[in-house]
Amino acid sequence: MNLAAVVLAAGHATRFGADKLSAPLGGEPLLFHAIRAARAAPVSRVIVVARPGLNTGTWPEAPPVDVVRLDSTALSQSLKTGIAAASGMDGAFIFLGDMPMVPHGEAARLAARLGSAYAALPRHDGRPGHPALLSAKAFPAIATLTGDEGAGRLLRARDDVVFDDCPDAAIHFDVDRPEDLNRLASKDATGR
């Protein structure tokens, strides 16, 4: 399978109160952690959908990182833009720019489970998380999304979505507020 990874990073982080994706974590911008997780996936390219002016870094090694600039905060528009950039691929992982702790091995497990399914999702304690792996069969439905809607509704309506039970709760953890980032930084410092 020829897969891409899409990192959604076009939002303006209103709950965070500042430039969340540029906030430092472990000496680098928060977004870089999500890009690194996307690059660890079994993909031939990474597509970062980013708002204008956001530092997306320089990633010289393979897989290549392409940046698509989008001046819209609507989740559906970011997702549609990323999927459009991944046209021709067999599927695309969806990573969120504010999820820095996604376990790097999870994407490979999702790819192994996808087969002919519509999508593959990690699941922890019975709840799905990220990254989501959408097969190319899902791409036309993504193009119909509107407003601040992600793929969740589409995936819940399908019976051909497969799950990987992941032991790591990090598939649910996103940074919404400065205290979330502070908690991650203190864990890094203590090793817990």
Strand content: 15-25%
Structural class: alpha/beta
Helix content: 25-40%
Say which CATH homologous superfamily is assigned: Spore Coat Polysaccharide Biosynthesis Protein SpsA, Chain A
Spans of at least 5 consecutive residues with low confidence: none
User: What is the overall pLDDT average?
Assistant: 90
- Morphology: globular
What string, H for helix and E for strand, traces the elements in order? Answer: EEEHEEHEHEEEHHEH
Biggest sheet details: 8 strands, mixed
Query: If you compute it from the alpha carbons, what radius of gyration comes out, rounded to the nearest whole angstrom?
Result: 16 Å
CATH level-3 fold name: Spore Coat Polysaccharide Biosynthesis Protein SpsA, Chain A
Question: What would CATH call the class?
Answer: Alpha Beta
Number of strands: 10
What is the CATH-assigned architecture?
Alpha-Beta Complex
How far apart lie the N and C ends?
36 Å
Helix tally? 6
Number of domains: 1
